[in-house]
Amino acid sequence: MASTPIMSGAATPAMPAHWRDFVALTKPRVMTLVVFTGLCGLLAAPGHIHPVLAFTAILCIALGAGAAATLNQWWEADIDAKMKRTANRPLPAGRMDRQAALHFGVGLSFFSVLLMGVATNWLAAAVLTVSILFYVFIYTIWLKPRTAQNIVIGGAAGAFPPIIGWAAVTGDIGALPVALFMLTFFWTPPHFWALALFVRPDYAAAGIPMLPVVAGERATRRQIWLYTAIMAAAALAPVLMRLTGVLYGVVALAGTGLFVALAFQVYRSRETDPARMTAERRLFKYSILYLFLMFGAVVVDRWLLA
User: Fold this and answer.
1) This prediction's pTM
2) Keyword Cell membrane on this protein (predicted)?
3) Residue 46 binned pLDDT confidence (cut-offs 50, 70, 90)
4) Which of 64, 83, 112, 229 is most buried, taking the most CB atoms under 10 A from its CB?
């Protein structure tokens, strides 16, 4: 059954929220990777964009990501209250009024899209709109409470930034940003399911049908291994399609090889105690570094080819 943004009276704040709570709603740590992939899409694009407009485009991507995160927390406030790792967020902790969070999220959404359209072009603004709506309505409201495959389809929302960054410069969508979209799309399941394995009790307590909860650890590890293999193919696709050069190819081979090795350790693990899942934690932490490395390599490689 879908979650509903209803909070108990105990969650009503006694005083206005602090500005830090509004920042916390945007999930700044998660936003870092979103902004970086968007920046890499912008820097890898052919053509020229004024530095001020480039900064504005990246700012819009950050604001759009923050808006989506805010609306996600507004909708899931009751769920967050049941999970240890999210219970101290502004809404479940009672530091902010739910209506204020809704207005903040909607306001950020409209502002980021309009600013992107005026500053760069309306194609970039349209893709930014799709990414926000996809995350809020398709992933948060529809998929997440209904299916264990939520993160597979919903992962598309976090894969749009390189396309947005590229479109902000060129006004179109090329093969390379689509390849980077696919890399991020197939990277998301092993990245997120590695986390889900060692926070499974939280999801179970909140009634969220994440894969480890409904299918168990073993099935989740098999899925991580499967999607890692698909991700590895996506990582090498830019080289095979001659969209990038040797430098990216070397980084892709080495970085993906380590990812595969860590995923294999997770696949072979039989650990059931979340507190002792070291292989899963290693994969989750490395997966974040991996995406930074891959996208950074794309930019450097494109500059060397220019």
Assistant:
1) 0.91
2) yes
3) very high
4) 64
